[in-house]
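Possible regression after last week's pipeline update?

I re-ran a chain I had predicted before the update to compare outputs. Posting the input and the new output here so someone can diff against the archived version. Not blocking, just want to make sure nothing changed silently.
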Amino acid sequence: MRIFSLLVLVLIFCSSQMKSQEHFLLPDSPAKCHLIKEGKFIKEGDSAKNWNIVIKKDSQREYTNNGKDYIKYKIEFLDDCTYKTTVTGKSDGKNPVRIGDIITNKIIETDHQFIKIQSLYFNKADEFVLEKIE
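New output (post-update):
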């Protein structure tokens, strides 16, 4: 029974890893970095009610909690595929992000409306996939 349970856990983990990579089997070449410059985005597999960002010109708003809470950023593009965001405001005092914090983002690859981003915040790198919905 333990072996069966372990096998099920391994299969679940592998299928979730494969799902996050299924959009990048034939990525755009070169990456379409302009997609991030304006629009509404969600994290892959998440709903817009839980988390979304809206980017317009040189600003970004990250909405959580069904749109009740937000973090506002100023965006500065360093090159076509790299940009930094500076926190300029927030509504949720419990969020550990502070006004003035800087996050550097690099678009790694795109596949139609999916954008894979590497984010660097306090020397900690994180990778995630956004889906452009508007």
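Follow-up from reviewer: compared with the archived run. The first strand starts at residue 39 and ends at 43. Marking as no regression found.
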